[in-house]
Amino acid sequence: MMRISIFTLLLQILCLLALNTAPLHANKEEAEALLQWKINGLSSSLLDSSWSVNNLTNVCSWEGIICNSDGYVSELNLPHENIRGTLEPLRFSLLPNLTRINLKNNSLSGVIPSAISSLLKLTFLDLSNNNLRGGIPEEIGSITRLQVLKLLNNSFQGKIPPSIESLKHLQFLSLEMNQLNSMIPFELGLCTNLEFLYLDHNFLTGELPPSMSNLSKLVDLDLSSNSLSGKLVPHLIANWTQLTSLFIDSNNFTGRIPSEIGLLTQLEYLALSSNQLSGCIPSNIGNLKKLSQLDLHKNHLYGPIPPTIGNLTELGLLELSKNYLRGSIPPEVGYLTSLSAVLIMSNLLHGPETLSIFCNVTSLSGLIIADNKLSGNIPKCMGNNTNLIVLVLHGNQFHGDIPKSLCNTCHLQFLVLSNNYLSGVIPTCLGNFSNQLSILRLDNNNLHGAMHREFCSSTPFKLVDLSHNSLSGVIPSCLGNLSTTLSLLDLSMNRFYGNIPEEAFKGDVLQVLILGYNEFEGLLPRTLINCTVLKVLDVGNNGLNDSFPHWLDVHPQLVVLILSSNHFHGVIGSNPTTKVPFPMLRVLDLSNNHFTGHLPEYYLLHFYWDYK
Fold first, then answer.
1. Which pLDDT score, from 0 to 100, does residue 13 have?
2. Are 200 and 174 in contact (CB under 8 A)?
3. Which SS3 state, helix, strand or coil, does residue 163 take?
4. 3-class DSSP state for residue 517?
5. How far apart are CA 140 and CA 146, in angstroms?
6. Residues in CB range of 441: below 8 A, 6 or more apart
7. In whole angstroms, what is the distance from residue 267 CA to residue 466 CA?
8. What is the mean pLDDT of each run of 10 residues along the chain (612 residues)?
C-alpha cells in the first residue's frame, strides 16, 4: 500500500510540473509571435524597451499586453500610441487565447489579414481610426464569439461580408466613416443580439433588407450619409421599439413617414432630414415623449405642423426647415419649455402674431424662422428671451418698428431681420446692448434715420449689412473702433452723404466694403491701404471725385473693384506701386467716369490667363 501511495504521489507531482511548464512554453511562443510582428511590421518607440528579445519570458509585463489567470496572452491593448505598420506579419494562430484587441487611434495601414479567423476566443476587436484599407474579410464570420466589432474611420471598401450572420453574439457593430459601397446584406438582420449599429458615412446603396426587422434589440441605429433608398417600411419601424436614437438622414428615402414611428416611445433622437420623404408629419409623433431632438428638414413634407408636437415636453431641438409646411405654427409649441433651438426656415408658413408663442420659452437660444410668409409686428415680448444667441427672421413679411425690447437679449450674437417690411429708425441700443453681437443684418427693409454713434461701441461686429433701406446722414468716423473685428460692411442703396471718413477704415481685417448707390463725395480714404485682406471694394454710383487708386494695386486678395458712375479722373495706372499690380483682380468696373488715356495691359493679364 505504501509503495502504491508513493507512486501515486510522484505521478501527481509530475503532472503538476507538466502543467506549470505549459504556460512558460506558450508564453515564449506568444512572445516570439509579438516580437516578430514588431520587427517586421511595426514602428513604435513605445514598444522598443519592453517588447525585447531579452524579455521573452516576461511577456505579461510587456507594454499593452494583458494575460489571463493561466498566464496566456489574452488582451492586446495599445490605443492612442501612434503605432505605425501593418497587421499582416502578426501570426494570430500563435495567440489563440486572445479575447480583446484594442488598437484604435493609431496609424496602422494595410489590410485585415484573413488569418485573424484563428482568434476563436476573441470577443472585442477595435481597429477604429487607423489607415486600414481593402475589404472586410469574409473570415471575420469565423470569430463567432465576437460581441464588439469597431472598424470605423478607416478606408475599407466593398461590401459588408455576408458571413457576418455567424456572429450571433454581436452586440456592437461600428463600420461608419469608411468607403463601403454595397447594399446592406440580408444576413446582417440575422445578428439578432445587435444593440448598437453604426453604418453612417459610407456609400451604401439599395433598400433596407426586410431581415432588419429581426433587430428588435437595437438601441442606436445610424445609417446617415449614404445613398440608401426605398420607403421606410412600417414593419421595420414597428419592431425597433427599444431604439433611443434613429439617424437615417442624408439618404434617398422616399414615401411617407409611417405612422408606426409613434411606437418608438423610447426615442430621444430622430433624424430623417435630407431625404425625399413626402406627405404630412404623422400626428402620433406626439407619442415620442422622450424625444430630445427632432430633425425633419430638407424633405418634401407638406401640410400643417401637427399640434401634438406640443406633447414632446423634453424636446430641445425642432428642425423642420426646407419643406412645404403650411398654416401657422401651432401655439402648443410654446408650451415646450425645454426648447433650445427652433429652425423652420424655407416653408410656406403664414399668419400674424406667430412669434408671440415663443415669448415664454425662455430656454430658447436659437430661433430661425426665415423665408416664410409670417406677418405682423415683431412682438415686444421677444425681449423676454434673454438666453437668445441667434435670432433669424429674414424673408418674411414683418412690418412695424424693430422693438427696443430686443436689447434685453444681452447674449445675442446673430441678429438677422433682412428682407421684411420693417420701418422706423434703428433702435439706438442695437449698437451696444450686447458685447457678443457679431452679425447684424437689417438690409432690404424700409428703415430710415442715421447710422448712430452707438455702432462704434465695444460691440465686436464682424458683419454689418444695412443695405437697401432709406438710411441717411454721414458715416460716423468712430467706426474705426471696429477695425480689429469688422470684416464686412454693406451700406449700399441708401442715402448716406458726405466724405467717407479716413478714420473709419484703418484695420487689417476688413474684407468687403460696399458703399455703392449713395451720395458720398470727396476722396477715397487713403487708410484703405491698411486693409491688406480686402477682397471687394464697391463705391459705384456716388459723387466721389478722385484719381485712379493705383495705391490699392498692392492688395494681394482684391478681386472686385467697382468705381463706376462717379467723378474719378486722370490717367489710369500711370504709377503702379508693384511689378504685378492687382494680382487677383477679376471684376473691374470703371464706367461712367472721366478717365483718360489707355487702360494698361498689365491690369488685364490675369483676366487673359483665367480665360485661357
1. 37
2. no
3. helix
4. coil
5. 9
6. 394, 415, 416, 417, 418, 463, 464, 465
7. 44
8. 44 40 62 92 82 87 94 96 94 96 97 96 98 97 98 98 97 98 97 98 97 97 98 94 98 97 98 98 97 98 97 97 96 94 96 89 95 95 92 96 91 95 91 81 97 79 96 90 90 96 86 97 94 95 95 91 96 78 90 91 67 44
* β strands within 244-364, DSSP E: 245-247, 252-256, 269-271, 276-279, 293-295, 300-304, 317-319, 324-327, 341-343, 348-352
**Separation CA 21–CA 27 (nearest Å):** 10
Neighbour count for residue 45 (Cβ, 10 Å): 9
Cβ neighbors of 15 (< 8 A, separation 6 or more) are: none
- Cβ atoms of residues 383 and 403 within 8 Å: yes
Dist. CA 56–CA 34, nearest whole Å: 10
pLDDT attached to residue 578: 76
User: Which whole-number Å values give the CA distances from 259 to 168, 228, 268, 386, 533, in the listed order?
Assistant: 31, 21, 17, 37, 54
C-alpha cell recorded at residue 34: 509579438
In order of their start, the domains of the chain are 486-497+507-519+532-612 (3.80.10.10)
Residue 113 CB burial class (10 angstroms; 0-12, 13-18, ≥19): middle
Cβ-contact 394, 419 below 8 angstroms: yes
pLDDT value of position 49: 80
DSSP code, position 503: G
How many whole angstroms separate alpha carbon 218 and alpha carbon 435? 46
* Nearby residues of 608 by Cβ (< 8 Å), 6 or more positions away: none
Nearest Cα residue to 119 out of 138, 150, 144, 152: 144
Whole-angstrom distance, CA of residue 535 vs CA of residue 367 = 32
C-alpha to C-alpha distance for 239 and 226, rounded to whole angstroms: 23
Within 8 A by CB and 6+ apart from 561, the residues are 537, 552, 582, 585, 587, 588, 589
Cα(200)–Cα(202) distance, integer angstroms: 6
Sequence letter at residue 361: V
Residue 22 pLDDT: 39
Residue with the three cell numbers 414597428:
238
For the chain, the C-alpha Rg in angstroms (whole number) is 34
CA dihedral 201→202→203→209, nearest 10 degrees, is -100
Half-sphere CA count of 202, side-chain side, radius 13 A: 30
Q: Tell me the sheet residues that pair with 190.
A: none
Vertex 185, ends 180 and 191: CA angle to 5°?
110
Instruction: Check: CB of residue 278 under 8 Å from CB of residue 303.
Output: no
Q: What is the pLDDT of residue 458?
A: 66
pLDDT at 346 (0 to 100): 97
Cell numbers for 603: 491690369
- State the residue for C-alpha cell 428615402: 253
| Residue 134 to residue 147: CA distance in whole angstroms | 23
Rounded to an integer, what distance in angstroms lies between the CA atom of residue 579 and that of residue 584? 13
Of 72, 73, 56, nearest to 64 (Cα)? 73
> Rounded distance, CA 558 to CA 529, Å?
11
- The bridge status of strand 133-135 relative to strand 107-109 is unpaired
What are the b/e assignments for 344-366, b being 16+ CB within 10 Å? bbbbebbeeebbbbbbebeebbb
- Count of alpha carbons within 13 angstroms of residue 316, beta-carbon side: 6
